[in-house]
Amino acid sequence: MKKILVIICSSILIFTIITLSSLAETVSLPLKADQISKNCKLTNSIDVNKDALGNFEKKFGAKVISLRNDFFSVEGNKLQINYIKSTDSANTLKVYNSLIKISGNYNVIALKNNTVIEIISPEIKTKDKIIELINPTEVHKNY
Prior knowledge:
Layout: H1 2-24, H2 33-36, E1 40-47, H3 53-60, E2 64-74, E3 77-86, H4 89-103, E4 108-112, E5 115-120, H5 124-134, E6 138-140
Antiparallel strand pairs: 1-2, 2-3, 3-5, 4-5, 4-6
């Protein structure tokens, strides 16, 4: 009887872990204001013109498909999230490493799939919430 109970409990635990892991992967980018906080408002969003992407490709030394800047107000504090989408994992890694060098120690740089996410905020709590939401494969932060 104990063996059956252990097997059932183990199965439930494994199912729960798998379910939670898959839920973490379902957040789509770009993030929406209500995903960040109930007191978050999108104040501006800029999709960089495809003709201007060449400047960023030179800056990062990698192919860039799209670049989007979202600006939010979160409880009176400014938050900016930049999404830089690249063609493949090699180019994405180049963008990620370049952005770490360019941004210094202030910004959080995250990597998810073929997108590099730059999080700019004075609030550590906000940065950590964004990291938790996007569930990146790599994160660079200095705090």
